[in-house]
Amino acid sequence: MKELDNQRLVWIYTQMLRIREFEERVKGTFEEYPGVIRGHTHLADGAEASIVGSLATLRPSDQLMATYRCHGYPLALGTDPKAMMAEIYGRSTGLCGGYGGSMHLVDTERGFLGTSGIVGQGIPQATGAAYAAQIRKQDQVVLCFFGDGASKQGAFSESLNVASLWKLPIVYVMENNSYNVVTRVEQEDANAAAGEPLAMKAKAFSMPGVTVDGGDPIAVYEAVGAAVDRARSGAGPTLVESKVYRLSAHGNIIAPPGVPLHYPEHEAIEVFGAREEYEAALRGDPVPRFRARLISDGSLTVDAADQIAAHVREEMQVAVQFGIDSPYPEPEAALHNVYA
Amino acid sequence: MGTPTPPPASTSAELDGETALGLLRTMWRIRCFEERVAQLKRTLQVHGLIHLSIGGEGVAAAICGQLRDDDTVYSGHRAHGHAIAKGAPLDRVMAELMGRSDGLCRGLGGSMHLVDRAHGLLGATGVVAGNIPLAVGNALAARLRGSDQVTVVFFGDGAVQTGYFSESVNLAALWELPLILVCENNGFAEFTPRSAHTTVERVCDAVAPYRFPCQSVDGTDVGALFAVFAADLDLARRGRGPLLLECMTHRRRGHYEGDQEAYRDALADAEWQRRDPLARLQADAIAQRWLDEAGAGALEQGARAEVEQAVSFARASPFPALELAGELVYASER
Amino acid sequence: MAREIPYIAAINEAIHQEMARDESVLYFGQNLATTENDEFLKAFGSDRVRVTPISETAEIGMAVGAAIAGMRPVVELYMAEFMLVAMDQVVNEAPRFRYMSGGRVKVPLVLKAGYGFTAGWAGQHTGSIYGMFMGIPGLKVALPATAADAKGLMATAIRDENPVCYFHHYLLTLEPGEVPEGEYLVPFGQASVRRSGGDVTIVATGWMVGKALAAAESLAAEGIEAEVIDPRTLVPLDIDTILSSVEKTGHVVLVDQATRHASASALIAAEIADHGFSALKAPIKQVTALDASVPYSEPMEAYVLPDEAKILCAVHQVLGTAPVAA
């Protein structure tokens, strides 16, 4: 694992900020341009440190798969946010031509093999990609991202068992945000109910399991980096539980056409009335936290940080405008891509 | 496994004479039944896919024999022993295997799908591990009814790698259901050894994240198994659960009748033959003077005679009315 | 050069040849390659040939992921019903992934599954469940009825760029047939006219093809010439060959081992009614399994399944002729 130099630290911060700004603009679109975003979106605000810290460990030839909460990964990999926003807006210029939308971003050229919209189902797929990587013998590693809810899916346990058995070059990164949709993890997870970390599930597969503060990109980088090194060396998979707090609700409201969509308050407040829990999470927001750290240790000046922020705001404003200005696909295109 | 080992230690320390004889009788009934089924399969008097549990009777006898009729057993494709030990009448099981109208399931289910509500055998499923979530649901229902009924689900070591297993174990643990998970670990999932399925050596390790009571026992040591299960049952009866009991066992025949058994070399057959649970328990019972040779012979003969009666009963039973195939698709009354 | 080999050997030959031809072809699943003597393992090694645990969701999901990552997996599922354990991967992932990516990825894989084992396997291992996959755009469905097709369709399935459900019939497993040696491909979407005739069109799949041909022989003895068509793939479906036969005969009997309302024949009937109605001289008749799970007991099992007598009866019904008493 390489030491993170100053330039890399600033890169991490910049990517975190880009993800945050992108997600803010997605959320803002519901107000600014009602009706432009249809269906369901899921935001990664709060998970930026975990996402970027994880991806910072990868080589360009490595690969990853994720869930429907997928905007963060391609942004950090260098995918054009204009194409991403256009995809979320259903335009022909979108990353996937408007076929997939928010939940199904794919950018294979950058190693982002895609997502599943169904909880847990991307896990065997990433495991299959790791199998392909193993037999291709080019030292590739696959990162597999999923949430805490997915760890109760059969797809999770079946996949981790096989990966452990075959010593596949994969790292399972569980972003534990303590909620599956509106259910608290201790309501549905026997380990959580017993007050145990979810990383404990790795025991069932004779696999190492570690828990890390997903709000600290350097801690994530070190934990995932060690797991990536282990995977690359042929020693097999690791389960990394990255504790994050999602700062938005699970997704925008689900409503019939005609009802304006928006983001409700986080479930902690909306469902459980636990405002203090949410406000504590806000106080620990990983983005300002990391900015403060870089400034205090001299890695970044206040001016430079402000410049980055201004640049990112401009970049994402352009992305929104590009999406809004882009044409819709021809209806007949619906019948393309059914078969390769 | 190739070197000779001393004879297995006495198995009967935990048993009294009456219990031991009851277990032996059940095991002989299962053994004779299944040997007869193997013959009938060869002559196509039973058809379809037949999985035998010869060599594993001790688990069925020691566990099902301690349950009440209103306790529930879920079994799988290798279910004859569990059904018989739980009290299903031999003749109606045989009639089911021969596809007759007096069969347990009126000829609709066959060997892999035995159901006997009256004796608490709520079902056997033909898909590996498919019975585990059903048993979780049964345990939940028992809890909701406020009863002290216990649910036991039997499955093989191959089932542990399925999503069904892990999803079910999480829920059973979360809800603390009175469920006893009994894994009959015969070291082979269908045709492939455990090492091809998982790096986890013991099934107990697969539930390590949940910290519920879990023991591995020698499934051929019927006395020891009986005592361990008695303790588990007592806990579950008092509302504790889930619990897992891993019985190290062996199937003396192929995965199914007709299996070419290309993998057989790996099975250390001779060693397991020495550990035949029926022979072990019977030898111990004789040594304890609960039984003499003549009494043992009588047990076997009695079981064989009962099986022959079952065959006669099944042969005399008509095939079901053909229309039944359609009539039972939907339930028509409450 | 054709020689006779069993249906199952023809399938294995196709997989073997395709694995030799293209090193991205993988073969994995439960209970395969368990000893060093396995011919696939010997030829292609344990990277490409692997036994898996009983984990259908992982097996099929891994195939999807490996395919996205550039491989061509063939998953051995043994029983078609085992796919049901992993229905999300089969229906909701494999065929939809490429589409939702706007064509940026492809998911070439083969799900090899035996079906229709109506030999006392009772309700959970006997279904003819291909019909439910015909309605999933993005999936292709192959249904070989002969040893030659078993080989040619498997080779084509492996080379196809899409997920293919390859359903082989368990009761045909040991059925011998002439099979070309070497590379042999049967194109998808091209029905085979198994027997020509001008009086009635019989469309049948899988094990039912043999039953339809036997019925056609009996009919010929009565002076009725049946044309027997085997679609060979249900997706894509060669409706044109069926329609031109119907133009000629005006009478249609559809034979399908599936239960009526989940059958391929119901969809074929709809296509004929839609596109060939004016050619019909009598209503279309379907001979399918009765709408019940397959019962265990042998007489009941036979009762619910289509057979030669039921086909003959249906033909006489559409032709308005009286059956010759047996």
Q: Are there runs of chain C of 5+ residues with pLDDT below 50, and where? A: none
Largest sheet of chain C: 7 strands, mixed
* Coarse morphology of chain C: globular
CATH arch. level architecture of the largest domain in chain C: 3-Layer(aba) Sandwich
Q: Tell me, rounded to a whole number, the average pLDDT of chain C.
A: 95
Most extensive interface: A-C, 46 and 45 residues
Determine the structural class of chain C based on helices, strands and strand pairing. alpha/beta
Average pLDDT, all residues of chain A: 96
Order of helices and strands of chain C: EHEHEHEHEHEHEEEEHEEHEHEHH
How large a portion of the residues of chain C is in β-strands, by DSSP E?
Answer: 15-25%
Task: Give the oligomeric state of the chains in this entry, treating copies of one chain as homo and distinct chains as hetero.
Answer: heterotrimer
Explain what you see.
The complex is a heterotrimer of chains A (about 350), B (about 325) and C (about 325). Chain A is an alpha/beta fold. Chain A has one domain: Rossmann fold (3-Layer(aba) Sandwich), CATH 3.40.50.970. Chain A is built from 13 helices and 8 strands. Chain A has helices at about 5-30, 50-55, 70-75, 80-90, 120-135, 155-165, 185-190, 190-195, 215-230, 265-270, 275-285, 285-295, 300-325, and strands spanning about 65, 110-115, 140-145, 170-175, 180, 185, 210-215, 240-245. Chain B has about 325 residues and is an alpha/beta fold. Chain B has helices at about 15-40, 55-65, 80-85, 90-95, 130-145, 165-175, 205, 220-235, 270-275, 275-285, 295-315, 325, and strands at about 70-75, 120-125, 150-155, 180-185, 190, 190-195, 215-220, 245-250. In chain B, α1 (about 15-40) runs antiparallel to α10. The longest helix of chain B has 26 residues, at about 15-40. By secondary structure, chain C is of the alpha/beta class. Chain C has 2 domains: about 1-180, Rossmann fold (3-Layer(aba) Sandwich), CATH 3.40.50.970; about 190-320, Rossmann fold (3-Layer(aba) Sandwich). In chain C, the strands form 3 sheets. A 7-stranded mixed sheet of chain C has the order 3-2-4-5-7-6-12, sandwiched between helices. A 5-stranded mixed sheet of chain C has the order 9-11-10-13-14, with helices on both faces. In chain C, α1 (about 5-20) runs parallel beside α6 (about 145-160), α3 runs parallel beside α4 and α8 crosses α9. The longest helix of chain C has 15 residues, at about 5-20. The model of chain C has no long low-confidence stretch (mean pLDDT about 95). Classes of the chains: A alpha/beta (about 350), B alpha/beta (about 325), C alpha/beta (about 325). The interface between A and B is medium-sized, with 24 and 24 residues.
